Fold this protein.
Amino acid sequence: MAYENAIDRFFSAALNPDDWPSALDDIASALGADGATLVFGASTRPTVAESLSIQPIVAEYFARGAPIDPREGRVRPTTAEGFQNDFRHFSADEIAHSPFYQEFLRPVGFGWHAAACLADGSDEVVLSLKRRARTGPFEQHEIEALDRTLPHLRWATAAARHAWGLALHDQVATLERLGHRGLLIDRHGRVANVGADLALGDGLTVKAGVLCASFPADQKSLDLLVAVASAPDAPSQLPPPPAIALHRPSGKRPLVLRAMPLDGARRSLLAPAVAILLVTDLEAMRQPAQETLRAAFGLTPKEAELALRLAAGDTVEQAAEALSITVAHARQRLKILFDKSDTHRQSELIALLQRIAEAEPPR
Amino acid sequence: MTRDTAIDRFFDAALHPEDWPSALEAIAGSLDADGATLIFGPATRDTLVESIGIRDYVADYFANGLNFDPREQRVRAGVGEGFLADARHFTEDEIRRDPFYRYLRKHRLGWHAVACLADRPAPIVLSLKRGDRGPFERSEVEKLDEMLPHLRAATNAARLTWSMALDDQMATLARVGHHAVLLDRQGRATATSPGFVPGDGLQVRGRHLVASYANDQAMLDRVVGIATAGERPSDLPAPPAAILHRPSGRHALIARAMPLDRARQSLMAPSVAILVVTDLDRASRPDAAAIRGVFGLTPKEAELAAALSAGKTVEEAAEILNISTAHARQRLKIVLSKTRTHRQSELIALLARLA
């Protein structure tokens, strides 16, 4: 029964991340431990969720600066194995002489652990159950009981990740329908949607998930943008990092990149991405659709034609020539355009037309 | 199949909706039932998933049985209760005589136990069915009730994840300058982006989307209908836009609805489409910092560019920047050169892309 409660709590915290500290508390006591941590992405920049009981200890660890945790190097559980206790990696003798165990863990009352890997790969998830020194180490029969929970916990982890993957797919799809290209960035700053249909190569390439600028001079600002976007504790209230330009060997106008943090995804700890990088191709001018223009302002086809030419950046003279009408005729039509769109000058009209173009899907 | 695993399978299917048929088969098996269905909101072919073993029955049900199912009217399971067996709503006599129950017995599924797993925004109902083994007795119902908290927890957790993900989506759209309204299968609003106050041009009345002008309503309904209908999105041409005129006289709103494919398939997501609303009155101004960064302009050059992109003439911009018109024109030449545009209209069109 207790084990079932542990699994339940894990399930709901996997999807409701604010719940981790209290869920880990419950999981720990259900599994015969005094505390627990869940470490996401152990290898590079780990994010750690701690049970309420452990939080003060961890704070102490970082404040005081404890001796190096020897388990860092040695304890690397994989999904091929079950829970591992201290003796899997250290002899009783090593433990008795380890500064970390004796000078840090014991004095704060802890000393034993059992850890298991819930997910492999670059987004590793490791559950570590901790016990006070006086409770004693996890015995073999206890490890066997813990191992029976593992399939459930692993299943929950994989399922939650999958769900987030689906949701992020939708988000990228919506942006694409609005004519924006989006790259999903994970916690390590790597591109998570490898199949992104992006005209890469001229200005920007992706190599093994790493974003590379065509010009070395642009790489630094690109790296900085990616670092800020994927930083573990990027506060959402701050203004986003400014847009950067990536210049192109072809000589075309630059690509503009902007970072959009995904707060919910980031907090979930299990989502495959934490930010979206929007890529705007300045060379590709977007046009408002004729139908939209006509519906929005009640334009005739000829009025819409003129509006489109102006939106593309033509002067009145150039537009007249392109449409095979006189300049006077074009100016006349422009007056009507102003009237119907409630604008007073060309620059205002163009700004409005561009705004309409922004919401158009790509053609 | 142990109970534990059945709950696991439920959780998994809540997040991998293609797994529902086999998950429900597993759950039915572990609870001494012959089959199970899960219904998300009102029962339609799209919103009902069934265990593998009762596929034929379900197909027949939608063809023939749905019309005369008395349970549709009478059975209202709520989250405050546990599983409800037939005896709760029908007398023995009714069960013996009702044409629908006879229809069920022909399919060897004469008995059921029903529970509500979640009720907002729409109820999610799990129904266990069986035939030859007879009605679910009280002791069996008690056992079923033991599973309920776990199933409800899994359901709520899955829903919450989708809500968080959909909030993220609205936040991202806001950052690129659009408002959004999330829509359910019936085209009603489930959430609006923060900062969007419906009222002028578009209103939300009792969750229905209402255009301020009656003339605009038909197009709005059509746009919403296409996106929530769930047709394969790749077959659709670009979604049409509804223009919503405003009583205030401001520039119109453009509303474009897009299906959320994975959300729709999940069945757990509260919304299946998103209405993206562009406020034409809100000038999308690229800020001077972005212009500087992207084109390498000096602060003063960027200021001029920003003023022009907001629709000012060169003369007006000069006045705002406290320089002579001649000076402004000179500066404009440099800006054109740095942005590789040839005239002001082209520059404005380019800068608008940066907003």
About this structure: The domain at 164-281 of chain A is CATH 3.30.450 (Beta-Lactamase).
